[in-house]
Amino acid sequence: MANPLAHIHIRTYDTTCPRTDPLPSLQEGSLTIRPVLQSSDSSFGAEIFGVDWKKPVPDELVKQLISLQDRYAVLIFRETGLDNARHIAFSQQLGEKLEINPFFYGRENDRLGEPLLFDVGNIELDGSLVKRDSRRWHHSLGNALWHTDSSYHKQRSKYSLLLSHGNPVHGGSWTHFADTRRAYSDLPPEKKSQLEDLIVEHDLWHSRKLASPIIYGSPLPHELAAKPPAFHKLVQIAPDGRKTLYLAAHAKRIVGWEVEESQKLIWELIEHCTKPEYVFSMEWLRGGDMVWWDNRQSMHRANPYTDSMTARDVRRSTVVDDGVDAFGVVV
Length: 331
Ligand code: OGA
Ligand code: MN
Description:
Elements: E1 15-17, E2 26-28, E3 31-39, E4 42-49, H1 59-72, E5 74-77, H2 84-92, E6 118-119, H3 135-141, E7 157-164, E8 174-178, H4 180-185, H5 189-195, E9 199-202, H6 204-211, H7 221-226, E10 230-233, E11 235-237, E12 243-245, E13 251-254, H8 259-273, E14 279-283, E15 290-294, E16 299-302, E17 314-320
The site of manganese (II) ion (MN) has 4 residues, from loops.
């Protein structure tokens, strides 16, 4: 079986964003689109230029951006200059409900203290960096495993919008993305039919345990109660109409299978989806950079915390899914 922990390392994949060999840009109305990965049957990732973030984004432009989002699954905007309030306001234009932060370590200990934002950086309230072996350190290690956000929710999430607030990071700051639509499409027909009707149990505590077996071998009662598992189909229809794999390190068990054989298949598929041709590494260049991804048709991962890390201030809003598959499957 593939070793999930092999993913917890700092690296960049073959393709980066910005690319070292940029693809031709496209113009669509006022927007310039610079694609990241392009194959005969899939476009994945694009830098978008031409949005005026100083003003509220007009509804027509939001529509255009959503249609680009459906096509590319990961949109990158440079130097938006957005603050917390405008970050939240734009996210609210993309769906009715934003996810609420459970504040596992107490709202009073959260740097942002804003229930509609998740602090996924590495800075504590007093300005120090997250301490090695703190519970927050161990919790965050799971973000370095390939995943999609909140697949363990009964009502899953649709989009995540991660915004950088500056802080130059020595040695570079990266987030990595994988195209699960193209990966699905390249599977052999027999494999596709084997997967078609499978239902997967997603559990946050499963990915925490994989990344940090000792500390999260037994999550605390309030943690377990806050995030019970959820069930979703493995093969789903993506917003652009193609089939995709809905997968994450949170995926624990295929319904009706033993955990061990489930994990074998799940990690075989995650390995497949994260082959170099389906993956790119996005570089955070400057404060205000924002990446907006579709959790229904991609996976992503962070770089892990290290002893030599420098300050990184990135904040995420998460838009709850309101589509037909939002609630997954009742088992
Ligand atoms: C997230 C996440 C990646 C990163 O916010 O959901 O996985 O690079 N972040 O911080
Ligand atoms: Mn994530």
